[in-house]
Design a protein that fits this description.
single chain; Rossmann fold; five-stranded parallel sheet; 15 strands; 47% helix; P-loop_NTPase
């Protein structure tokens, strides 16, 4: 019988197809095209697709934004208490995303000064120092959102919507905010900041008696005035109104809202908050999807940043293979492999760097890893190792850098103990968990400490890792534009406040599963976001 020599219909395995689609955002592009045509319902579908592609110009994070039209241009809102410097944050976020900054208050003032219909309706309420009705404010904001520059570039709203009715009105008009951030600061800190503000009417410049004091000249000091809206009574009244409404507004955006609490405020530290906002809003441009993917993930960070915990959770959730230098060495020592390594290395359980590299490459090329995908922990540890992986054909498609400060890493590792009976890890950091605090005093509790977790040795390991991020960035890079092949993404693995940190710590001293789910869905199930830089 003649042998069938007909070539297969596909020359590449499915896993490569998934990797190609993921790398080129094919599922996202097709999803957006289908959404657009279903909403617009054009008579000529083919022509619509062609024009749609021409408008996008290959960049599907910058296509036209239309009322009642799905879009992936920025549609953000930043909410927070009065006098919390939201304007600075919103303007910077807008600039980073090439979007339009919109302040409802400034729109109201402009409408009144121009004397248009909305301004004429709003003016009596402003003169009586009353709240402008929601219907008028919504009409003013919607009119701005229909302008061509906003439709093509997207927007960042500051302090809007303020009420549930305003939020519902936006939704009824087809304005779907892709991301809403609520910034919270204790009332007393807000009052302290607002009541310290002073205005120089001569140059219209605002100073703060504590954080940004005015020039020490007699004339300047005499000119300064305190606006009526900045008195303590006025600020507390505005805060009361804000607190009453913010919960109702938040309920309208449960699925795409993030809240950040700063117990000590952030005045004079706005750029730290801005960095976090840029990370959050960068994710907001891309929707979570569950399309076929081939996971080849790197997870790195300073010692004590939580790499093992994150990798193990990814393994449990997706069934991808957890690989690390430690695991491949243990696997080699416990197996009867044909690898020939010096006996002194095997006896000491320590292998040279080139041997570890060989073991890792061998593992990542195994059938198990190629079929199921993999997550590689704590490797590579230098630019040369990263390039060596690439030369071996090991090409990751995600790289998560766990961003944690040195002080937190030191605290985590030096307060770490092991239960000799079951190998569980416990921490003695105060207030993390009542049971953890009691553990050392319990009878029959056999806790031991790894010599590598001494303060001196941990500091040395942290010092050796000081430039690790920069080294790996040279090899893998950020995704700076839509055509960039960079894959490095930063994940905040610390927590933004003491309370949120305590609430999200598990018994091992790292983030609980809820955090892993958020970071996983925010980074793993979206296309790699373009990195925005503070201008």
């Amino acid at each position: 019988m003649k042998k069938d020599t007909t070539p297969p219909l596909t020359s590449k395995p499915k896993k490569n197809n998934a990797a190609y689609a993921d790398r080129n955002n094919l599922f996202q592009i097709c999803h957006e095209m289908l959404s657009a045509v279903l909403i617009s319902k054009p008579d000529d579908v083919i022509t619509f697709f062609i024009e749609h592609l021409k408008t996008a110009k290959g960049n599907f994070t910058k296509k036209v934004f239309c009322i009642n039209h799905l879009s992936t241009v920025p549609a953000f809102s930043i909410l927070g208490p009065p006098a919390s410097n939201l304007k600075y944050l919103a303007e910077k976020v807008a600039k980073a995303h090439d979007a339009i900054y919109i302040s409802a208050t400034e729109l109201l003032i402009n409408a009144i000064s121009r004397g248009n219909s909305y301004g004429t309706q709003a003016k009596p309420f402003v003169e009586r120092r009353q709240l402008v009705p929601d219907a008028i404010m919504t009409a003013i904001v919607l009119a701005r959102l229909k302008d061509p520059d906003v439709q093509s570039n997207g927007f960042v709203l500051q302090g809007y919507p303020r009420t549930r009715e305003q939020a519902c009105s936006l939704q009824r008009a087809g304005i779907i905010l892709s991301h809403v951030v609520v910034i919270d600061i204790p009332d007393d800190l807000v009052v302290e900041r607002a009541s310290g503000l002073r205005l120089d009417p001569q140059n219209n410049k605002t100073y703060h008696l504590k954080y940004d004091p005015p020039p020490k000249t007699p004339n300047t000091g005499q000119r300064l005035i305190q606006r009526a809206s900045d008195t303590e009574d006025s600020v507390r009244s505005r805060l009361k109104l804000y607190r009453r409404n913010i919960t109702l507004v938040s309920n309208c955006y449960k699925d795409n809202l993030r809240k950040f609490t700063y117990e000590n405020g952030y005045f004079k530290q706005e750029d730290l908050v801005l960095k976090e906002l840029l990370r959050v809003f960068g994710q907001g441009l891309n929707k979570i999807d569950y399309v076929p993917r081939e996971f080849k993930i790197l997870v790195q960070g300073l010692p004590g940043s939580g790499k093992s915990f994150v990798c193990e959770k990814l393994h449990e959730k997706y069934g991808i293979i957890h690989v690390s230098p430690k695991l491949v060495v243990l696997e080699e020592l416990s197996s009867n492999s044909k690898n020939e390594f010096p006996d002194n290395q095997k006896n000491n359980n320590r292998f040279e760097d080139d041997v570890v590299l060989k073991l890792i490459v061998q593992k990542l090329k195994s059938k198990q890893c190629t079929e199921k995908g993999w997550v590689l922990e704590n490797f590579p540890n230098s630019f040369s190792e990263a390039e060596a992986l690439k030369k071996e054909g090991i090409l990751p498609n995600r790289f998560f850098w766990l961003e944690v400060d040195k002080e937190t890493c030191l605290k985590r590792l030096t307060n770490r103990f092991y239960d000799a009976t079951n190998g569980k890890v416990f921490h003695t950091v105060t207030n993390l968990n009542l049971q953890i605090e009691q553990l050392p005093t319990l009878p029959n509790q056999n806790l031991i400490k790894n010599p590598q977790d001494s303060e001196l040795k941990v500091k040395k390991r942290l010092e050796e890792s000081e430039f690790l991020k920069e080294e790996l960035l040279k090899s893998f890079g950020y995704k700076m534009d839509e055509k960039s092949k960079g894959i490095m993404q930063e994940i905040n693995a610390v927590g933004l406040s003491v309370e949120s940190f305590k609430e999200s710590i598990d018994k091992d001293g790292f983030y609980d599963e809820e955090f892993i789910e958020r970071s996983k869905e925010g980074n793993l199930l979206r296309p790699i976001p373009v990195v925005s830089r503070i201008a």
